[in-house]
Specification:
The chain is α+β, with helices and mostly antiparallel strands and 141 residues long. The radius of gyration is 20 Å and the shape is elongated. The N and C termini lie far apart (64 Å).
């Protein structure tokens, strides 16, 4: 009877492992960054320095933003005529219009916030995991 119990436990672990592997294969990385990497076309010529990694899509910025936010809810989002700016705990996903659709820029928050501050300003709030210091008297000191 003891062997039977161990066999059942072993089969249960094997089934759980197979489900996790199948999920990983079909749904890719488990982050907004991985979502973009798996679904859009890499465009190295549109990278910004070594910080912002570019991808392209033939969809409009609002369509790309809808796809990304349905899969990964951002901590904050800002939209204006220049594009869509999504903030996550450690990353940003910035979606800008180009003639053939959109360029999607993945960048760590510590470099994205200074780059896009003039656009997002105070619209991007800060949650846990943020590494950028805020601005009032005595803050970040």
């Amino acid at each position: 009877m003891t062997y039977r119990r161990w066999f059942v436990v072993g089969v249960a672990f094997a089934v759980i492992g197979a489900l996790v592997a199948a999920f990983a294969i079909f749904y890719g990385n488990f982050s907004p960054r991985g979502y973009v990497e798996d679904r859009y076309t890499r465009a190295t010529s549109r990278d910004i320095g070594g910080e912002a990694v570019a991808y392209t899509s033939n969809k409009t910025p609002s369509q790309v933003a809808q796809d990304v936010t349905e899969a990964w809810q951002p901590a904050d989002q800002y939209v204006d005529g220049s594009g869509v700016y999504l903030r996550y705990d450690d990353d940003s996903v910035v979606i800008l219009p180009i003639a053939t659709g959109s360029v999607i820029l993945l960048e760590r928050l510590r470099t994205a916030y200074p780059r896009y501050h003039s656009t997002v300003g105070s619209h991007w709030g800060w949650g846990r995991g943020s590494t950028v210091r805020g601005g009032g008297p005595g803050s970040g000191k």
